[in-house]
Design a protein that fits this description.
Elements (H helix, E strand, L loop, with lengths): L1 H32 L7 H11 L1 H14 E14 L2 E6 L2 E6 L3 E4 L2 E4 H5 L9 E13 L2 E13 L4 E4 L10
């Protein structure tokens, strides 16, 4: 009886260990496969670039090689996750907004800038942008990153970036 009790105890411990191991393994697999579900698209892209550093630098380099300076003027429709929708004469365009902006000797995040006395939905604004355009097989891709904004009262806001963007004379 004592020997049978020992075997039953060992079997119970092994079953518990196997159950714990299975739970930990399944949890780890679920976390890695669904880790991106709670992240925004920007966070997923950032995470991908962190895991594959050459891709991010290459994409940035290709953007810079194709980029030109431009302007986007229109009426603010909305802002979501750093993407501003402007209604222009040629239709709606999307402008990527850097996270922080300097306006009136204050630092504002992009949502505060768009929902402040600087500009709001239905108001006209002009953005100076770094613009990349690619034409391929019947479609074109246009990416605009704002670096300066001027509202209808000629007030200016400047993006807080780790570099300066200036036109060559």
């Amino acid at each position: 009886m004592n020997k049978g009790l020992k075997i039953a105890g060992i079997a119970a411990v092994l079953l518990l260990a196997l159950g714990c191991f299975s739970f930990i393994y399944a949890s780890a697999q679920t976390d890695s496969s669904t880790a991106n579900n709670g992240l925004s698209t920007n966070q997923q892209i950032s995470q991908f670039i962190k895991n594959h550093p050459g891709v991010g630098l290459g994409a940035f380099g290709r953007f810079i090689n194709h980029a030109t300076l431009g302007e986007a003027t229109g009426t603010v429709v909305s802002e979501f996750n750093g993407m501003l929708v402007l209604s222009t004469e040629s239709g709606q365009v999307r402008v990527l907004l850097p996270k922080m902006w300097s306006y009136n000797n204050q630092l504002l995040n992009r949502t505060e800038l768009i929902n402040s006395n600087f500009v709001g939905a239905g108001q006209t604004v002009t953005f100076k942008v770094l613009k990349g355009e690619w034409d391929k097989n019947g479609f074109s891709l246009n990416i605009m990153i704002a670096y300066e904004a001027v509202n209808s009262a000629n007030a200016q806001a400047v993006a807080v970036l780790p570099f300066n963007i200036e036109a060559n004379s």
